Amino acid sequence: MFGYRVPAPDEAMLISGGRRGLGGAPFRVVTGHGKFVLPIFRKTRFLTLSMCESEVTETCVTRQGISLHVRAVIAFKVGNDHESIINAGQRFLSDQDQMSVLTGRIFAGHLRAIIGSMTVEEIVTERQKLAAEVLDTSKTEMAKIGLIVDSLQIQSIDDGDTGYIDAMSAPHKAAIQRQAQIAQAQATQASVEAEQVAARNQAEYARQTAVVRAEYSAEVDRAQARAAQAGPLAQAHAQQEVLDAQTELALRQAKLRQQQLVAEIVKPAEAEAERIRVLAAAEAQRMKIQAEAAASYDRVALDRMLIDQLPQIVKEAAGGLAGANVNVLNGADGLGEIAAGLVSQGLTILDSVRQNLGGPDSSDDRRQPESSNNGLLQLHSRKDDKADDGPVNVD
Residue 328: is it exposed, middle or buried by C-beta count within 10 angstroms (0-12/13-18/19+)? Predict the structure, then answer.
């Protein structure tokens, strides 16, 4: 609309002409809204409320007399209240760039004054303290011209060619270098230890691998050896079984041979011994009879005694056949013939005894035992001949 003016959000509209502003100011201040301004009768100007920047580079002398080149940056703006706007408008409205120049000069003066009361060590180590003191001392002057400072930053401090700051930092640099060297040495040592541990682990792994390989190789060798020995062992077992069978066969043959020897030697020897025993028994019996006959001179008693002893004589003769090797081929007839032969021999022995006992002279009595003995010997020699010739075959 014609004559209606609206300031920007970061501007203050100053309307001059007409009635005065607040506090007797020669203009009225409008911010944040529009205003109808009569043309020709009113004049409108705009003052920036945005942030401004001023850079200060100043050579300052410390309390120790050391010159320092200080570079600082100030961030400032016109205050938002009407009083600050009025103060800034009256001073900078026609040339608003002068705000930066004037602000830099103001801060340069305060910076020199504050640095002059401090040592280099304080300035270097307490920059924030320096900035705070400069802000505090310049706040009143900046408020008079309608400006407020938002920030003051000390960008750099340089002592030129004097080398004071470098000398002051030398112990710290040395300490830092020493710490860096220590840290480097520790890192190197840790690296070497790590390498050694890795080498030991690798060596241990290699040793374990070699052990495992050796065990596997030994196991393979044992398996191959067992496989190589399997054939000879099987052959040896087979030969051992053959030897065992041969040994068993030899034992059986020896046992059979022993039985043959018993049949061929022991049995005939036992039959011979039995024959001798029978002869001895018969001789003893004959002697006993003669003794009894000589004592009694009783012929009848002697015959009776011989008859009574005949079964015993036959029994003794038959007992000799018990150990003999006799084969009966014709069954019961053969056995009957053997029994008849035994009885006949017994009767022959009886007749021989009678004849030997019948002579009157003592010389005949001496010869009777011999004839009786001959009869008995003839009987047993016939039996022995049969035993020596082998089995008796009775047809």
Answer: middle
